[in-house]
Amino acid sequence: METGVQAVANKAEMQGIAEGWRRAGHSVGLVPTMGSLHEGHLSLVRRARAQCERVAVSVFVNPLQFGPAEDFDAYPRDEERDLMLLRKEGVDVAYLPAVGEMYPPGATTRVRVHSLDEKLEGAHRPGHFEGVATIVTKLFNAARPNRAYFGQKDAQQVALIARMTRDLDMDVEVVVLPTVRDPDGVALSSRNAYLTEDERRAARSLVGALRVANEAFGEGERDATRLRRRMVDVLAAEPLVRPDYVEVVDPATFDSPGTLAVLAARVGRTRLIDNHPLGQPL
Ligand code: PAJ
Do residues 135 and 64 lie in contact, with contact meaning Cβ atoms separated by under 8 Å? Predict the structure, then answer.
């Protein structure tokens, strides 16, 4: 049964609603997103719905986590469709603050997770994780969740949020769900909308590289350098793909070696990331 979703743009209003839920003894789940929702996002929403009595989903394209040369302006936005999907999922509140509501003039406080935020994805996107840590902290303060839901698709973001909640004594359980993929294996991403047909075909090499590493791992290969080389070779065979990094790291520290295969690459002009915990089916 569809009950309607309440759209909230104001942080004080969001806090008031969350406070009411808490006072009534309801558990609260939060799913932070940047909208343009797909089945990956919806898998998080469904888990939140199953585990929590009240569910808030935030839709906010966060300028602070985009570099000056990145795609903040072009990032796909479709609020009406997002609200329709959230209504179907039985979400209680969609929190859609404007940029000025989140970052009014003079808001200069930032949250940093040192060291982790400078590795791999952080090295290629300076300031990105500071933007993520800051907005997630603010979303937690607005929606006051007991549990917050994140996708393994953004593995370093997961490590960062888990570290941040621990380091700052945030009373939020971080729930992580597996990457949802298209039938051809490509990880769902809002940025896939940028790909041409040829690029979309080339993008399969990312999951192809992860599969090759996973098979080698399954056959007993544990040497990070050799696992890495296998992935690099798969990507090198695809002329439309230019890797930023390919590594096998520890999933909590993002130091090498480890058992998490992670990669980032440009496919044409679109930058995509993917990863896989080696040893798990893919
Ligand atoms: P966004 O890219 O919209 O993703 C929102 C959540 O959906 C993240 O936790 C992400 O890991 C998860 N997700 C994306 N693609 C997925 C897939 N194919 N399978 C499973 N989960 C997937 O990540 C962000 O937004 C932002 O950085 C945010 C946390 C909202 C802070 O601004």
Answer: yes
